[in-house]
Amino acid sequence: MSELRKILIIDDEEFIRESLGDHFEDRGWVVCTAESGEAALMLMETVHPDACLVDVRMGGMDGDTFVSMASEKFSGPVYAIYTGSPEYALPAEFRNLRHILTEPIRKPVQDMDKLVGIIADLIDRNCN
Question: Rounded to whole angstroms, how far apart are CA atoms 122 and 46?
Fold first, then answer.
């Protein structure tokens, strides 16, 4: 059997972290969570996730800043940004990077299994 996939879910809302985490765990993923970008950067020193699901709007460091900093510091993980903001657009500097999902995931997530598939596909594409 192949190694389990590991996802780091970063959101300042506990209920959202738990809900997303439960769904990924039910699908066989190892789940780690962080309530802020700052906490996630520290956690990534030891956790080494395959993917990070990152909320854009959080207190302190926002999701875009986290993705920029984490991408510079850690090679390997892929990043999917999700937001409830209909106006949000992926920053131009992220658009052509292979390890960042090219479109933000919109909250509320309507199809959780599709979300799991999208992130799994992003990991697979990044490994090839």
Answer: 22
